[in-house]
Amino acid sequence: MEDKQEVEVIHSWSAPRSLSTSLMYSFSQRDDIEVLDEPLYANFLRVTGAERPYRDEILSNMDSDGNRVVEEMIFGPGEKRYRFCKHIAKQRVPGLSSDLMKKGKHFILIRNPLNILPSFDKVVPPSFLELGLAELVSIYSELSDLGTVPPIIDAEDLQQDPEAVLRGLCEDLDIPFQPAMLKWEAGPKPVDGLWAPWWYKSVHKSTCFKPVKEFPTPLPPSLYDLLEESLPFYNMLRKKTRRTCSVIGPSLHLPPLPVPANDKILVWVGNEIVPRDSAKVSVFDSVVQGGDAVWEGLRVYSGRVFKLDEHLDRLFDSAKALAFVNVPTREEIKKAIFKTLISNGMFENAHIRLTLTRGKKVTSGMSPAFNLYGCTLIVLAEWKPPVYDNTSGVTLVTATTRRNSPNNLDSKIHHNNLLNNILAKVEGNLAKADDAIMLDKDGYVSETNATNIFLVKKGNVLTPHADYCLPGITRATVMELVVKENLVLQEGRISLSEFHTADEVWTTGTMGELTPVIMIDGRVVGNGKVGPITRQVQNAYKNMTAELGVPIPMYTKA
């Protein structure tokens, strides 16, 4: 017999039916580890009074003093360098020594409850407490607070690529990977707990991690509510799993955000404020079913929302044109905007994407008659400086995609069905331009895929009629400023060649403000630099945004 020595303990925390026994078998194949199967089970039964078919047998044969188990069995001396302790999360009951969490190395094994619940009730009736996902979140939080953030692995990833996941886990635990972990012999094992005859029949037939089933087991309708309760906890942990390229592929690596601070924003959806990753609408919502929604873009300057009432006027006009019903009131929308901005601390340099959908449907389909829940309001506020280069200017190309005619879909309705604009933007992207000019059905310039457009010729400012384009609020503001600056303003039908030969060109929009254009279709605009009238109107616009707007309640200037 080997001499007893101090061991390094590896704690595995999981819910039932999560491949935890397979993982225990995997670790038991190592030559440097000993295994304990749920050493705290008897303590759990004693403390909770939980009924099990094997309760008496366990209490008669296992130590039910949890703290003695922690001290003598879990952290006592052993014959191998490591000791693997398989724990079920719900067995971490009150009264256990804090050493359980403070000592050793911990990791968490999770599994989608959709794959757990259909087979859960073979021994124990399923319940939220029996499933234990909330306790897993608590364990993760407590370990993180102690400064030892535990790695998390997902059973499905483990099934899909056992070697990659096990190698990654061993790396996180700072132990060498051993290929022996990938296989074991079928049948009962000496390390099995006394409950094995009730729970381990399936795993005793295995010799390795079995691939994920191509199709799931049907979920009994009686378990639907339990699934709904449990999934948020699983998803919370799933976002923190140890990802390996072999398992998820390089395409799923999280891309960097243009503004990293937007990773932690709060969003208004429906009638509540939720974190970014929880900001979702139903698959039955009309915006998903058919792009059936209206929207506005707004900017925040110095604690004020610029042109708020003008934007809300247009939002309500668009909703009326599309025959929306049960529309929130103006005051309700304003409160949602202010609450979102205040919750995020956004009082400057922020952009709001305000969306109002026709709402959720009772069943999928086109008809608004299915929309019986009322509209869905979304307030998405982001830290977002102007999206174009307003100092040096941008380049445009002309798209072959024509702007919608009012004969088809009136662009004066500020709707979410933006495929017409998106197709033009695709052309602009392919041409490596910043945006694309869109012509009307007769070949005259309408706007760009995202903005209204102006030109300067011999000191006069011209902009296309808003027959085919959205009469933008920034467009109207700039037109007002042009007049105030004692410049000549003309609206009319403007051909593409007039833009090619203009002295100056700029675009307008809430997201980009007033943006100089220095090249169109390979033709340099003017002398290729930002013109004096463009600068003049830019400055006037900047001054206006600094002075006007609806104040955000509670904002005090620093």
TrEMBL record:
Gene Ontology molecular functions: catalytic activity
InterPro entries registered for this protein in UniProt: Aminotrans_IV, Aminotransferase-like, BCAT-like_C, BCAT-like_N, Class-IV_PLP-Dep_Aminotrnsfr, P-loop_NTPase
One BP term from GO: carboxylic acid biosynthetic process
Coiled-coil stretches noted in the UniProt entry, renumbered to this chain: none
Pfam family, one: Aminotran_4
Source superkingdom: Eukaryota
PANTHER family on file: AMINO-ACID AMINOTRANSFERASE, AMINODEOXYCHORISMATE LYASE
Family: Belongs to the class-IV pyridoxal-phosphate-dependent aminotransferase family.
Protein name per UniProt: Branched-chain-amino-acid aminotransferase-like protein 1
